[in-house]
Amino acid sequence: MPASPVIDVERLSVTYGDFTAVRDLSFHVRRGEFYALLGTNGAGKTSTLEVVEGHRRAASGAVRIFGESPRDRRAVRPRMGVMLQESGFSPDLTVRESVGLIGALSGRSDDVDRVLGIAGLTRKAGTRVSQLSGGEKRRLDFATAVYGGPELVILDEPTTGLDIQSRDALWAAVDRLRDEGSTIVLTTHYLEEAQQRADRIGLMHEGALHREGTVAELTQALPSLISFVLPPGAPEPPTVGALNGAFHIETFSLQDDLYRLLGWAHDTGVELRELQAGPTRLDDVFRAIGRA
Amino acid sequence: MLEIARSEMIQIFRNRLVLVTGLVIPVAAGGYFVYQHEVFSDLGGLGYIAAIVMFTVLAFGLYTTAVTTLASRRQNLFLKRLRSTAAGDAGILAGLVLPVTVISLVQAVAILIVLGAVATGPAQLPLLAVAILATTAMMVALALATAGLTNSPEHAQVTTLPVSLSVIAVASWVGIAGTEDLALLKRLLPGGAATELVVNAWDGGVPLADSLALLPITMAWVLVAVALAARLFRWEPRR
C-alpha cells in the first residue's frame, strides 16, 4: 500500500471577491520528494501556498498536510517549516532572539547556535533585525524554517536577494535536509534552481496546473534547438530556412540532426558560425505555456 | 504565549519611543493628578481622581500602546510569522498584549496606592478591583478592534484618539458632574458605568447593591468590545 502523500491538494479553488486566483487545482507531494511549484506572476502559486500553509481558506476543494487540515496548527506546524516570501520579524529583537522565539513556538526543538550556523548567521547573532540587509533577513527566514529539521519545508522564493555564496550555502543546507528525509516544496523564479533539484515540477498558469512531471517529462514535448549563422555567399543547408541570416532548426532528434548538419558542413567546407545546440529547457516550456 | 510575552517585554524596553509615550507619560499624568489631589478632589472627590488616573493609564498607556504594537506587528508581517508556528491565535494575541497590560495594571494600582496613602483609601476595595479589571478587559478588546482599523504605527496616532479621548471625557463628565442628571446616558457611554463604579468604590456612601447594578453595563461594554475585536481584527495587511 503506497504511503499517504505529505501534501494532498484536491480540486482547490481560491477566490478574492469575484476574482478566481486558483481554480480546480490538484496535486500531491510524496514523502521525501522535492517538488517545485512554478508559474508566471499571478499564476496562483502564492495563493496555493498560503492555503497549504494554513494562512488562507480555500473557496472549495480540500487540502491535507500529513492527512490533517493545514489550519490545525498544533497537529501540522511541529512537522512543517515555512520560509515566507516576505520576511516578518520584530525589528527590535536580535537574530538569536528571533530564531529562539520562532523556534520555541514551532513545537520543535533544536540548538539555536546550530541553526544560526546553518544559515550563516553566527556572526550576526547579536545584531538587531532592523540592522540586517535584505539577504540576511532571507537567511534568518530560512533559519526559522529549518529549525528542528522539520519533515516538510516550504520554501517560497528562498534565494531572492541572496548573493551567490549565500545561495550555495542555502542549497547545501536543503540538500542535507533531503538526505535526512525531509520533503521540500519550492517556488522560485529562478528556473534553473528547480530544473537542477526538483524531482517533479508543477507548472501553473492563470490559476491552473498546466503541466506536471519530471524535467525530462516536461521538456520532451518540445523540440530541441540548433542555431547557427552562415558566412556570406555560403550555400544553405538543405531543408532549412534562414531568418535574418540566422538559422534555427527545431528537432526532436537533436543528436542525429546535429550529426547530419556537421557532416554537411564538413562535406561542403562551410563554417557554421555561432553554432549552438542544446536540449529543451524549462524556460522554453514556460514560454510555450504562455503562448498557448 | 509566554515566549511571545517575553519578547514583547524586551522590545518595549528597547524602543524608547514606546517606553516614553506609552509608559512614562501616562504615569507622569497620573502622578500629577495625585500630586494635585486637593485641587482635583474639589472638582469631583477622590473617587473622580481614582477614575481619571485609571483611565489615563489604561487609555494612553495600555490602549494606545497595544494598538500601536498590534499595527506594527501586522505591518511588518510578524503576526503572519507567528501564525506560521504552532501557536494558536488566542495565545499569540495574549502574548502580544500581556506585557503592556501587566505594566499598565501595575502602574495604575501603584498610583492609586499612593493616592490612598497621601489622601484617603478606597471604601470598597473589592469593588474597585472589579472595576479596574473590567475596564482593563474593555480597553484590551477595544485595542484589538481599533488595531483592525489601523494600518500602521503612525496611523495609530490618529485611530486611537476617538476612544482614548472619549473615555477620558466620559470619566471626567461622570466623575465631576455625577449621575444625578442624565444617569442612563452617562452610564451607557463607554467607561461611564466603570467610572461610577470606581467613584462609588473609592468614596463609599452608596449601597453595594446600587453599585453592583453598574456591573452588567460595564461587562456589556467588555462584550461589545470583544465582539468588535472579533469582527474587525486583521492578521495581515490589506493589499
UniProtKB/TrEMBL annotation, chain A:
Any single GO CC term annotated in Swiss-Prot or TrEMBL for this entry: plasma membrane
Domain of life per record: Bacteria
Gene3D superfamilies named among the record's database cross-references: P-loop containing nucleotide triphosphate hydrolases (3.40.50.300)
Gene Ontology terms, MF aspect: ATP binding; ATP hydrolysis activity
Any Gene Ontology biological process: response to antibiotic
Subcellular location(s) of the protein: Cell membrane
Membrane topology summary: Peripheral membrane protein
Start and end residues of each ABC transporter domain: 7-231
Predominant subcellular localization, coarse grouping: membrane
InterPro entries: AAA+_ATPase, ABC_transporter-like_ATP-bd, ABC_transporter-like_CS, ABC_transporter_ATP-binding, P-loop_NTPase
Keyword Manganese assigned: no
Swiss-Prot/TrEMBL keywords: Antibiotic resistance, ATP-binding, Nucleotide-binding, Transport
CDD domains per the UniProt record, alphabetical: ABC_DR_subfamily_A
Listed Pfam families: ABC_tran
PANTHER family, per database record: ABC TRANSPORTER ATP-BINDING PROTEIN (PTHR42711:SF17)
Protein name (database record): ABC transporter ATP-binding protein
Organism: Actinomadura livida
TrEMBL record, chain B:
Record has Transmembrane helix as a keyword: yes
Record-linked Pfam families: ABC2_membrane_3
Alphabetical keyword list: Membrane, Transmembrane, Transmembrane helix
Gene Ontology cellular component list: membrane
Membrane topology category: Multi-pass membrane protein
Cell membrane is among the record's keywords: no
Protein name per UniProt: ABC transporter permease
